[in-house]
Design goal:
Layout (H helix, E strand, L loop, with lengths): L5 E10 L16 E3 L7 H5 L4 E10 L5 E10 L5 H9 L3 E2 L5 E11 L1
Antiparallel strand pairs: 1-6, 2-5, 3-4, 3-6
Length: about 110
């Protein structure tokens, strides 16, 4: 049986807009001390999906801890990629100098 390798990339972390005039591209990105490392769910491996993308909206606290993540989108749906991403974010740690809400994009790839 071939080895399964999971690569989880944070494609972007832009601060979510706080008002109608706020633009995420102008906000500083979160910097990770401990990057999230999600695991490919068994359902995704059994479904032989190969790859997927999850977008989360998370709060980075003054301490750098990550809290209150919600799934914005996940594709393909139905393979529990979003749940895996949220679980991984619980162990993640950001630099404490940029608290706020951030969009986090995780890309799952099986090679």
């Amino acid at each position: 049986m071939p080895a399964v390798i999971l690569v989880a990339l944070i494609l972007s972390t832009a601060q979510a807009p706080t008002g109608a005039s706020a633009r995420p591209a102008e906000s500083p990105a979160a910097r990770w001390i401990v990057a999230p490392r999600p695991e490919m769910p068994v359902a995704a491996l059994r479904g032989n999906i190969g790859s997927g993308t999850v977008v989360l909206n998370c709060e980075i606290l003054d301490s750098g801890e990550v809290d209150g993540c919600v799934i914005v989108s996940e594709a393909p749906a139905g393979y529990r990629l979003g749940r895996s991403a949220i679980t991984a974010m619980r162990a993640a740690q950001a630099e404490p100098d940029r608290p706020g809400r951030y969009e986090v994009i995780l890309n799952f790839i099986v090679q």
